[in-house]
Amino acid sequence: MSPGSVASAANWAQAGNPKNFRIVFDVNSALTPAVTTYDIVDTVNNVSMLTGSAPSATGPYLRTYTEGSAIQIKTVAPPDTNLTAFDFGAEIVIKGAPADADQFTVQPSTNVDIFNTLHALITDLESASKTALGNTQFTNNMTGALSNIDHAIDRVLSVRASVGARLKEVETTNTMNGDVVLQYDRQLSDLRDLDYSKAISELALQQMTLEAAQKSFTRVQGLSLFQYM
User: Fold this and answer.
1) Do residues 40 and 21 lie in contact, with contact meaning Cβ atoms separated by under 8 Å?
2) What are the E-state strand segments in 98-157?
3) What is the pLDDT along the chain (229 residues), one digit of tens a residue?
4) Considering Cα of 190, then 193, then 198, then 201, what sign does the dihedral take?
5) Angle ∠(18,24,26) on CA atoms, nearest 5
6) Strand segments (E) across 43-110
C-alpha cells in the first residue's frame, strides 16, 4: 500500500472533507475469476462515499478493484450512485490481492521528526513478525518510514537552498560594501595627498579663465547695432 498522495491541496483542505476514511474490500469467490470490489466509508459520519447512505457490512460494493490502479477519493460515476459529488484530491495505490473483508484507514499525515522516524524504523526491523499480517504491517511501516525519510531529505535540501541563497546575498552585499569602501579610500587619499602648489596654480588658472569669459560675455552683451549707425 502506498502512503497516499494529495494531487490537490486545495481540494483536500476544503471544509466538507472529513479526512478520515475506511476502504473495505469484498471478494466474490463464487465468480471465476474472483471479483474484488471495495467501498470508501466516511468514518466520521459513518456514510459510504460511493452511495451516500449507511455503509453495507457485506459486499459486493460499487467499485471494482484493479491491482495497481489508484483508488481515488473522489466521485467516479459510474459506478458511484452518490448524488453529492465530491473530490478531495487524494488517491492511494495498492498492490496485491486483498482478502475478503480486508480494510485499511486513510487519515491525514502528521509531522514526524527524522529521529523518531529512524527510531521507529529500527524498532520495526528488530521486531518484524513472520506472519502474513505481520509481513503486511512491516511492509506498510517500511513504506511509511522511507516516505518520511524522503520528505526529510527534501526538507533539508529546501532549507539548504534557502540558506545558500541568503549567503549569496550576504556575499553580494559584502562585495558592494568593499567597492564603496575602496572608492571612499581613494577619495580620502586624493584629499590627503593633495599637491597644494599644483592645486593653487590650477585654481588660479581656472579663475583667470573664468574672469576672461565673464569680461568677454559683458562686452558682447553690450554690443548694439545702433553703435555702428
Assistant:
1) yes
2) 103-106
3) 777 788 888 999 998 899 999 999 999 999 989 999 999 999 999 999 999 999 998 889 999 999 888 999 999 989 999 999 999 999 998 888 899 999 988 988 777 778 888 888 888 888 877 676 677 778 778 877 887 888 888 888 888 898 988 889 888 888 888 888 888 888 887 777 667 777 788 888 888 888 888 877 777 666 665 555 5
4) positive
5) 155
6) 47-48, 63-64, 70-74, 87-93, 103-106
Residue appearing with cell numbers 558682447:
220
User: Cis before residue 18, ω within 30 degrees of 0?
Assistant: no
Point out which residues pair with 106 in neighbouring strands: 21
User: Which residue, chain included where needed, has cell 511501516?
Assistant: 141
pTM here? 0.57
Write out the E strands in 115-205: none
Cell numbers that stand for 44 in this block: 466520521
Distance CA 201, CA 190 (A): 17
Cell of 172: 553580494
Judge residue 19's burial from the number of C-beta atoms within 10 Å of its C-beta, 0-12 exposed, 13-18 middle, 19 or more buried: middle
- Cα 211 from chain centroid (whole Å): 72
86-89-95 Cα angle (round to 5): 110
Report whether 150 contacts 157 (CB < 8 A).
Answer: no
DSSP H/E element including 39: strand 35-42
Give me the residues paired with residue 28 across strands.
Answer: 35
What end-to-end distance do the CA atoms of the chain give, in Å?
113
